[in-house]
Amino acid sequence: MALVNEHFLKLPNNYLFADIAKKVNAFKTMHPKSDIISLGIGDVTQPLCPAVVEAIHHAADEMATQATFRGYGPEQGYDFLREAILKNDFLPRGIHLDINEIFINDGAKSDTGNIQELVRWDNSIGVTDPIYPVYIDSNVMIGRAGVVENGRWSNVLYMPCTAENGFIPQIPNKRVDIIYLCYPNNPTGTVLPKEELKKWVNYALKNDAIIFYDAAYEAYIQDDSIPHSIYEIRGARKCAIEFHSYSKTAGFTGVRCGYTVVPKDITASTLTGERIPLNHLWYRRQCTKFNGTSYLSQRAAQAIYTQEGKEQVKETISYYMRNAHKMKETLTKLGLEVYGGENAPYLWVKTPNGEGSWRFFEQMLYDAHVVCTPGVGFGPSGEGYIRLTAFGQQEKTDEALLRIENWLK
Amino acid sequence: MALVNEHFLKLPNNYLFADIAKKVNAFKTMHPKSDIISLGIGDVTQPLCPAVVEAIHHAADEMATQATFRGYGPEQGYDFLREAILKNDFLPRGIHLDINEIFINDGAKSDTGNIQELVRWDNSIGVTDPIYPVYIDSNVMIGRAGVVENGRWSNVLYMPCTAENGFIPQIPNKRVDIIYLCYPNNPTGTVLPKEELKKWVNYALKNDAIIFYDAAYEAYIQDDSIPHSIYEIRGARKCAIEFHSYSKTAGFTGVRCGYTVVPKDITASTLTGERIPLNHLWYRRQCTKFNGTSYLSQRAAQAIYTQEGKEQVKETISYYMRNAHKMKETLTKLGLEVYGGENAPYLWVKTPNGEGSWRFFEQMLYDAHVVCTPGVGFGPSGEGYIRLTAFGQQEKTDEALLRIENWLK
Prior knowledge:
The structure is a homodimer. Chain A has two domains: 14-43 and 314-408, Aspartate Aminotransferase, domain 1 (Alpha-Beta Complex); 53-305, Aspartate Aminotransferase, domain 2. Helix content of chain A is 35%, strand content 15%. Chain A contains eleven helices and 17 strands. Chain A has helices spanning 16-30, 50-62, 79-90, 108-114, 133-140, 194-207, 278-289, 295-303, 307-333, 357-368, 394-408, and strands at 37-38, 102-105, 125-129, 148-149, 152-153, 156-160, 178-182, 210-214, 240-245, 258-261, 267-269, 275-277, 338-340, 346-350, 370-371, 373-374, 385-389. A seven-stranded mixed sheet of chain A has the order 2-10-9-8-7-3-6, sandwiched between helices. Chain A is globular and about 60 Å long. The interface between A and B is large, with 84 and 84 residues. Chains A, B: It comes from Xylanibacter brevis.
């Protein structure tokens, strides 16, 4: 008799963004003429830049004739893209990686979800709280998260990030095997200074732990002192796997491409103490369960690294960051406590008078016709906050701010 | 201390196609001027058809302007493609599926590898032997395959398919929880008549087993009596999940798109006997660990279902099937026992005089400069066979046949 993987049944039935959509639809049904602006879901709105579009056209033409047609590519991605990554994303920061340490993927969600396959099912995990739900859910599905006790998973250590500690997670005073960090952070939009990131690398090295480092938003960093990659920290090659995505960097949410760095120095232990390099294990995992990212998407990604591509991508990021700055300025003037939004496309806003996240979400929806994301949806420490994103069109974002202003006055 | 998933270490260190590449490279080093033709790896050689190329250009242009730009798509795929699938791949065969039973993927390898996440880690599995390695390896990685004993996995039931039983796997006389079937078959190129497939569905219904049915090569079926989908069999909706791929149908090995059918009627049991629908579980899995297939690839796939797309794809399939027929005819005339190649792009050839697969592979490489795939690489029952593919260019395939003829004479 085929038995179901019962760990799946432990997952909460509600899904944050589905719940939001449901509430928004209910509002629309009651107010069919209302014009809602969403500053909620983190999808981009600006088109692909011309260099990327041109590269896709060119790749399509290559696929149209036998001489230049491309079938299966390498599971780990084409060298043309892996070389561009080494040369542009790492060498300028003094990070020397081998081409075989780069694995092209179809977006960071797949790899941040799949990476946990490499470690034992009962390894403990530590997460900053609030957190991107995939990190925990992918561990729940294999039984690693344990069971829910008082709204928290028994095998997960939650490291609160709130205004009280300046959104700096505290180094655990006990051993955790696997740590998820995401900086610039989703959902809080805050960053980790180099000296703080160093503490994590040192903790991991000392405790033989592994850091899964999600750098999906690094392109939004404006402050030169903030690390773009964990490999800027000495020793990180021995303890960290890093995830990158072109989704937010270059509007690839529909194109699907990113990459994962698995250094050759990072190992995990067997029960008998043998050290196993994870680079080879990830390669094996990808060769077995993945057949490479679309050639079209890889050529599209390569175009981001050309001179014109770089300039065009930078322009779009500036477009979104103008939103972020204006949002932060306006909301702060209105007396709200606003975090993030300086080196990230996300703003994390404290609800006034200690109101609950969902209650504030509903008020903003009904009174200002603006959609946000309730912070508590990202974890218990998100209660009393909401997330706003800077990915909207400028005119709509401005209009949303006007509405919020009129509502809160 | 982070502990490694030790199940990964049970995987054989050698990978079939890597081993072949190594041997071919050794030959090339010794004979730098030789011109080798590969009838080995199953990649296509013909370019994308014009309708598909046009669709990619159009999609690229849509992504270039804000009004038509597409960001995140639904994890389960766009309705425009799911509707085309229902209308073209299933309705004409009298199969009525709901749109939410179709999940667009980035190729069948990902989904045939990931689908096992839905069932308990200790469910037993049954596979036809020889077999596409992903089915077993993805189960090894999570510990479900057990341990190797005499070259076989302890929790895997092998169902031999050889010339002796006409390549018809025998229904097991014991209970197996999960069964992998692939028809038209990779690697043997043989098919399963409707009455045989019926036996499997009945077995699964009777034993509360689940069939993972890989239909990646269904577009190559020439004989109208052979089922294209397991859902042509009554009751299959309750026990089978089916995988489709555009890789071989339309040369999408580099574009990456396919789909998986998870009917709403299929359930698996909890330990307490509760029935859990797998459709919802797969949706949850995909929403957590996948962010949808590239918009470009989905539009490319949609074009296959237009009138011109259908005709163009059919032409390419005929091109390959001409190869298959010629290969079968020539090799048979040479006195070889040849199977498959009539409803599939693969030919399965018995080595003469009971020679070993690898020995025959090396002879063909050194004496005819033609590369094949040793059958034993697909499982113990593949010993004494080799696989040839019909995906070559016609001129090269003809030349390879000439060489084999001269060599064997």
